[in-house]
Design brief:
The complex is a heterodimer of chains A (about 375) and B (about 425).
Chain A lengths: L1 H19 L22 E6 L5 H16 L3 E6 L5 H14 L4 E4 L8 H9 L3 E5 L11 E5 L1 H19 L5 E5 L7 H19 L3 E3 L6 H4 L6 H15 L8 E3 L3 H13 L6 E2 L9 H6 L4 E4 L2 H16 L10 H4 L8 E4 L2 E4 L3 H4 L4 H9 L1
Parallel strand pairs in A: 1-2, 1-3, 3-4, 4-5, 5-11, 6-7, 6-8, 8-9
Antiparallel strand pairs in A: 10-12
Chain B lengths: L1 H7 L9 H16 L7 H26 L7 H17 L5 H25 L4 H20 L4 E2 L2 H8 L13 H28 L6 H23 L9 H19 L1 H11 L1 H6 L4 H27 L1 E2 L7 H11 L11 H20 L4 H24 L5 H17 L13 H6 L1
Antiparallel strand pairs in B: 1-2
The chains are: A alpha/beta (about 375), B mainly alpha (about 425).
C-alpha cells in the first residue's frame, strides 16, 4: 500500500512537471542545418586561442573594432594559455548560451571542437572558422583564412626573383625545405611552391643539387629549427664541399629560414637567397640587412575585417562570395566554403609600406 | 533552532552549512549578473558536459588526499589513456566498447605501476606521480606524434552524448523524466525504510514532519535538476557523462562511508601507525588508493576525448590542479584523514560554477583564473581558521552531517547515540 502511495506521489510529481509546460523545451533555433537570420545589434562571439603570439593579440583588437563598426555587439574571448582547449570549448558553449548569432573561431585545436560547433549549429548559429579550419565536422559554415597555396607560390616566386637579383645569371643551385608532415598546411605551402618551381627545374633554370625534391624527403619534423639546421648542415657537407655553390633555399617559414642561415654561416658559405613566412620580429632585421631575402605578411586586421564583412553580407541577405577549394579547405568531412585572402610578399624594398598599421613590425622595418 | 537540528542532525549550528550556502549564493549571484543565463537548461547541461571530467578526477583525488597522499600525474595519465583509446579506434579500427575496455585496462596498469612505487618501495606519492606526470606526458606525445587523433561518433557519445529521446512527447526528455522519477522514489523509499527500521530497533524516530521536510527538500532539488536536464533543446537531455558521474559518485560515496576499506583509508590517512597497529594493511590501502586514482583518470581522459571528438596533444594539462582544488574547497585536509566524496563534488561544482558564471559575464579567462585561485585560498583559510578556534571544521562538519544523515538511514551502527559518527572530529583528527 505504502509503496504504491510513494510511487503514486513520485509519478504525480513528474507527470505534473511534464504536463506543466509542453512548450518548455527550447526550440529557439531552427532544426539542424539552416542558420537564423543575423540582424544589426546581434551578438557576435569571437573565440581566439591563447595570446601566444603577437598576431593573436592584434586579432582581438581588430575584431573589436570591425564588429563595432559594422553595427554588431562583440564578445571576444581568449583561451587561457595554461589549458587552452577546454577553456575554448566552454567559451564557445557560453557564447551560444548568451545568444550569439555568429561564432567566429580561431581554434586552439581545430580537431577538438566538434561537440561545440554541433551544439551551435543546432541553435541556428552561424559558425565561421577563422585562420585555422575546424576539422572532422560538417558543422562549419565558412572558413576565412589566407590562401596557403598562394603563400607557397609567392615564396617560390620570391626565390626566383631573389636569385636573379643577387646571384647573377643562372643556372642556380637550390635546396628545398618544407614544414612538418603532421601539419596539413605544410603540404599546401610546399605544393604551391612546387607549382612555380617545377617548370624552372625542368627547364634547367634551377637545379636541386641534392636531388631531394619530394615533400617526404624535404619535410622538417615538428617545424623544429634544430631539424632544419642539421639537415642543412648535412646537405652542405655532402653536396657543397667542393666548388658547387649554394645559391638559394626555399624555406617555408622564418624560424626555419633563420636555422638554415645559421647552418650556412657556420659552414662558412656565402649567404644563399632564403625565403620565409610569418614576418617574425627576429627575421625582419635580417631582411632589412639583406641576410634573409623575403618573408610573407598576413595582415591580421585585414583577416578580421574579412570575417566581419562576411557576417555583414549574410545579415543583408546577400550570398557571400566564397570559394570551394578542396586543396586548401577540406576539413576531413567537407570542403568548407571559404573566403581566401591573398598574403603579401615582403622584401627589403616594400617592408616599411607592407607593415603599415602594425606598429611593432613597422618600427622594426624602419630601424633596419 | 531545535527543529533545524532535527532536520540536519545534532550538534551543529546552521552556520556550518557554509559550503551549500556558498553554492546557493554563487548561483543567485550569477543568476542576477548573467540575467538568468546560468540556470538556463542549456547552460546547466553544458556545465556537466564541460566539467564532469574534473569531478570524476576529484572522486579519486579525495581518496588519495584522505590517505595522506597527492597525485600530480592524473592529467598526464588521462592524456596517455586518451591517445591510446583514440589510436585504437582510428588506426586499429577497434569498436568503441573494446577501446573503452582497453582504456580502463591501461588505466589499471598505470595505477598498479604508481601504486607499486608508493606502497611497496615507499617513494612519496608526490615524487612517484611527479615522475608519472613526465613519463606519461612524454608517452602521450610519442604515441600521438604530438598531433590530434580524431575519434568516431559512436565513441564520442560517452563524453558528448545524451540519453536518447523515445516514447511520447511530453515536452521534456523522457529518459530524464524516468531518471528523475526513479531518484524521487529512491529518496522516499530510503527515508521510509529508515524510519521503519528505527521503529523496529526501538530507536528514537524523528518526528514525521522532519522526514517529510527533509525528503521534500531533496525531492525538490531532484525535480529542479530533472527540469533543467529535461527542458533543453530537442535532442539534448541528461548527458551520458553526468550519468557516469552520478553512478561513480554513489559507488565511491558508499565505499568511503560504508565499507571496511573505505574506513581504512581514513584510518591510514589520519594516523598511519595507529592504523597499522590496529591491523590495517597500510600497503594495501596505499596501493589501491593510487591504483584507483589512475583508473578514474583513465575514465576522465576517455570522457574528455569523447567530448572533444579527438585526443589532443595538450589534453590533461593542469587537470590535476583543478581536481586537487575541488577536493580542498570541498573541505579535505592537507594532512590527510579528513574529506568526503560529497564535499569534493560540491567543491568541484563551486569551482565549475565560478568559471562558467564568470565566463558568461564575459570576464577574461586570465582573470577568472585569479578569482578561482583566491576562492580556493579563502575557502581553505576559512576552514583552517574555524578549526583553530576549537570549533569543528565548518566545511568538514557540514559534510559529515550529510554523511551522517545518509548513514543513519543505511546502517544499524549509526543509530546508536554514541556511534563514531556522532563524534566525527575525535575519530578523524587523532
Amino acid at each position: 500500500m505504502r509503496k504504491k502511495l510513494i510511487a503514486g506521489i513520485g509519478l504525480a510529481l513528474v507527470a505534473g512537471l511534464a504536463l506543466s509546460g509542453c512548450s518548455a523545451r527550447g526550440t529557439s533555433g531552427s532544426d539542424s542545418g539552416s542558420s537564423t537570420e543575423i540582424k544589426k545589434g546581434d551578438l557576435i562571439g569571437v573565440a581566439l586561442p591563447a595570446k601566444t603570439s603577437q598576431n593573436w593579440v592584434l586579432a582581438g583588437a581588430a575584431f573589436e573594432k570591425s564588429i563595432e563598426d559594422a553595427g554588431f555587439k562583440a564578445d571576444i574571448q581568449y583561451a587561457n594559455a595554461g589549458n587552452p582547449v577546454p577553456d575554448q570549448q566552454s567559451q564557445i558553449s557560453g557564447m551560444v548560451t548568451k545568444g550569439a548569432k555568429v561564432v567566429i573561431i580561431g581554434a586552439a585545436d581545430g580537431s577538438q571542437l566538434g561537440s561545440q560547433v554541433k551544439a551551435a549549429k543546432a541553435k541556428g548559429v552561424t559558425v565561421i572558422a577563422w585562420d585555422r579550419n575546424i576539422l572532422n565536422t560538417k558543422n562549419v559554415d565558412y572558413y576565412v583564412a589566407f590562401n596557403n597555396y598562394k603563400v607557397g607560390q609567392l615564396q617560390a616566386q620570391a626565390l626566383l626573383d631573389g636569385l636573379k637579383a643577387e646571384k647573377g645569371d643562372g643556372p642556380y643551385n637550390i635546396e628545398l625545405f618544407a614544414g612538418s608532415a603532421d601539419d596539413a598546411n605544410a603540404t599546401v605551402f610546399f605544393n604551391g611552391a612546387m607549382n612555380v618551381l617545377e617548370p624552372k627545374i625542368k627547364d634547367g633554370t634551377v637545379k636541386v643539387t641534392s636531388g631531394q625534391e619530394t615533400f617526404q624527403k624535404v619535410q622538417t619534423k615538428g617545424w623544429l629549427a634544430q631539424n632544419a639546421q642539421s639537415r642543412m648542415t648535412d646537405l652542405l657537407s655532402q653536396y657543397y664541399s667542393g666548388d658547387t655553390k649554394l645559391d638559394g633555399v626555399l624555406s617555408p617559414n622564418d624560424t626555419l629560414a633563420r636555422a638554415i642561415l645559421t647552418a650556412t654561416k657556420a659552414a662558412g658559405k656565402p649567404n644563399p637567397v632564403v625565403t620565409g613566412q610569418d614576418s617574425e620580429t627576429a627575421s625582419i632585421p635580417l631582411i632589412m640587412q639583406g641576410t634573409q631575402y623575403s618573408t610573407i605578411y598576413k595582415n591580421t586586421t585585414e583577416e578580421a575585417q574579412a570575417a566581419i564583412d562576411l557576417v555583414s553580407d549574410l545579415s543583408k541577405g546577400n550570398k557571400p562570395d566564397t570559394k570551394i577549394d578542396k586543396t586548401n579547405n577540406y576539413n576531413g568531412v567537407k570542403t568548407v566554403p571559404a573566403i581566401e585572402l591573398t598574403p603579401v610578399l615582403v622584401t627589403k624594398e616594400n617592408a616599411v609600406e607592407a607593415y603599415k598599421g602594425n606598429d611593432t613590425l613597422e618600427a622594426l622595418a624602419k630601424k633596419g | 533552532m531545535k527543529n533545524l537540528k532535527l532536520l540536519f542532525g545534532k550538534g551543529n549550528s546552521i552556520g556550518q552549512y557554509g559550503m551549500i550556502i556558498a553554492l546557493i549564493a554563487i548561483v543567485i549571484f550569477f543568476s542576477i549578473t548573467t540575467k538568468g543565463l546560468i540556470l538556463e537548461p542549456t547552460n546547466v547541461i553544458n556545465l556537466f558536459l564541460q566539467y564532469s571530467y574534473i569531478l570524476i578526477l576529484a572522486l579519486g583525488m579525495v581518496m588519495v588526499i584522505i590517505a595522506g597522499h597527492i597525485d600530480l600525474s592524473v592529467g598526464s595519465v588521462a592524456a596517455f589513456v586518451g591517445i591510446i583509446v583514440a589510436q585504437s579506434m582510428s588506426v586499429w579500427h577497434w569498436p568503441a566498447w573494446a577501446a573503452i575496455i582497453l582504456g580502463l585496462a591501461v588505466g589499471a596498469l598505470v595505477g598498479a605501476w604508481q601504486g607499486f612505487w608508493v606502497a611497496f618501495v615507499r617513494v612519496p606519492a608526490f615524487i612517484v606521480t611527479l615522475a608519472g606526470q613526465l613519463i606519461f606526458r612524454g608517452a602521450n606525445q610519442i604515441i600521438g606524434q604530438s598531433t590530434s587523433v580524431p575519434t568516431p561518433d559512436s565513441y564520442n557519445a560517452i563524453g558528448a552524448g545524451y540519453l536518447g529521446d523515445f516514447g511520447p512527447d511530453f515536452g521534456y526528455s523522457n529518459g530524464t523524466l524516468l531518471i528523475g522519477l526513479a531518484t524521487i522514489i529512491a529518496l522516499i523509499v530510503i527515508e521510509a525504510r529508515g524510519r521503519s527500521r528505527r521503529k523496529k530497533m526501538q530507536a528514537e524516530v524523528p518526528p514525521l514532519w522532519v522526514s517529510i521536510v527533509r525528503t521534500g527538500v531533496l525531492v525538490a532539488v531532484t525535480l529542479v535538476a530533472t527540469y533543467l536536464f529535461g527542458a533543453g533543446p530537442v535532442g539534448t537531455s541528461i548527458p551520458i557523462v553526468a550519468i557516469i558521474l552520478g553512478v561513480l559518485t554513489i559507488i565511491y560515496g558508499f565505499i568511503t562511508k560504508n565499507t571496511i576499506f573505505g574506513r581504512q583509508v581514513y584510518a591510514v590517512g589520519g594516523n598511519a601507525s595507529a592504523a597499522v597497529l590496529s591491523g590495517v594493511s597500510a600497503r594495501k590501502v596505499n596501493f589501491f588508493v593510487m591504483a584507483n586514482m589512475s583508473v578514474l583518470a583513465a575514465v576522465a581522459g576517455m570522457v574528455f576525448v569523447g567530448y572533444s571528438n579527438a585526443s589532443g596533444p595538450a589534453d590533461g594539462t593542469g587537470w590535476e590542479l583543478d581536481a586537487i582544488a575541488a577536493v580542498f574547497v570541498g573541505g579535505a585536509a592537507v594532512a590527510g584523514g579528513i574529506g568526503t566524496i560529497s564535499g569534493s563534488i560540491i567543491g568541484g561544482l563551486v569551482m565549475a560554477l565560478l568559471s562558467n558564471g564568470l565566463q558568461l559575464m564575459g570576464i577574461e579567462s586570465n582573470k577568472v583564473q585569479i578569482i578561482r585561485g583566491l576562492v580556493l585560498l579563502v575557502a581553505v583559510a576559512f576552514d583552517v581558521y574555524s578549526k583553530s578556534q576549537g570549533r569543528p571544521s565548518l566545511i568538514g562538519g557540514m559534510m559529515r552531517q550529510f554523511q551522517k544523515k545518509d548513514t543513519e538511514q543505511n546502517t544499524v551502527a549509526a543509530q546508536q547515540p554514541q556511534s563514531i559518527q556522532d563524534q566525527p572530529d575525535k575519530v578523524n583528527t587523532q
